[in-house]
Amino acid sequence: MSYRSTHDVAVAAAKAGISTASGYRIESDPRLPSQKKVPRGRRRPDPLAAVWESEIVPILKAAPGIRAIAVLGELRRRHPDLNPNVRRTLERRMRAWRALSGPEQDVIFRQEHEPGRLGLSDFTDMGDLGVRIAGAALDHRLYHFRLAFSGFEHAEVVLGGESFVALAEGLQNALWALGGVPKEHRSDSLSAAFRNLAAPAQEDLTQRYAALMRHYEMEPSRNNAGLAHENGSIESAHGHLKKEIEDALLLRASRDFDDLDSYRRFVDEVVGQRNARNRKRIELERPTLARLPKRRTADFEEKIVTVTSSGGFTLRRVFYTLPSRLIGHRLRARIYDDRLECFLGSTHVASLRRGQPVSDSKGGHVVDYRHVIHALRRKPMALCNLVYRDQLFPRPAYRRAFEALREREGDKRACKVTVELLALAHERACEAELAAAIEADLDAGRLPDIQALRTRFTPDGTAVPDVVVELTPLGVYDELATMSTIAASGEMAVSSDMEVAA
Predict the structure, then answer these.
(1) Both 259 and 166 in a single domain?
(2) pLDDT in tens, 211-251
(3) Domain limits at 266?
(4) What is the DSSP string of 358-378?
(5) SS3 for 471?
């Protein structure tokens, strides 16, 4: 057609390398071949023609979000002879109707974030990853902090709920690891930070959260309740972080960790790798952050507890044991997410693993057998119906031994032997080795022999060395005195000769 502007059809066709007939055909109809195709019509009758306008469209207008499978079920209830294979056709027709005549949808407005402006916090559940600590399933969450501009992240394993203690500790660890403070801190409607009342947001802050924000000079904010996309800068990151942890677990080929600290280091490594990929943006944002205060603020709660005659105290429906010498004393217990720090006055007396109630109707127990074993040896039958008996056993082997002894030799013998086994583990510091020996006996069908085990785990006696002292004869000292006298006389004679010569 370019040649046709200056040549006739025959010449233009020859220059273009096509026949003259093709040239005349293009001259009469310049449309492309794809534009000449006639739209394909329906090849079979419309199975929804009889019900689309009269029944389906009214359903879609009354319930815009209804699924196609539900509409199909209703249609088949009304018309039993309707072919169930029309589901795909119905889905396409509903999708097209919604695009042309359906209701307006909500629109997400992408935001441009200013460096140093916004940091976000949230919690995400990690129970579906199947992580185990020493063989036991770990029900936990992650506290997740993220800067909106650079993507800097910090994550911590949280064992309890979405508490203020977990929020305060995780947020402060994140800020001090970052080395600066953003101008605004945003979260969803956490009960740890907001009372979730109808009052204005500033009046709705809890006192502890407001004090935390004042300490770091951050402006607190939150998204509207139920609108998670308003916190999208961290909600989306939740999914990516969980997927990376899942991938790392698959590469590790095991979801079992020896202890909680090992799992926490594992999470730190994954988060560190994500931050390394955003290093340039993090370094760009860091100068825009405000300075940290001179010190951290309290990231714990403090309660006064009294150690009862039961050898411990109850805090938030969980009973904790302590050394019996503290019975009757009032302690200050600092409550962290994963532990309790107990103080008598200003003296630190104990660190305890934090426990959780078993259910809404049943409390929990955190028991260290070392705290009560001396009293239990005097009253071994107390083990039989002890309320925290199952939590007293430090390893499953001791529980198995108690059950086997109880079944074969009765309650009295079972209590006495089990208590002695626990005392042996405490006195000889051989809890793990003793448990292995008990397991071997039980697997072999034998009951633990306390005397044999005492002998086996008795420390090796230290042999007293045979020291042989050889006394020097006293005459040697006389010889030394004589030699000393002769040497002194010789020196005096030499000195006199030198004086005479002079």
Answers:
(1) yes
(2) 889 999 999 887 655 454 556 678 888 889 999 999 999 99
(3) 118-288
(4) SSSS--EEE--HHHHHHHHHH
(5) coil
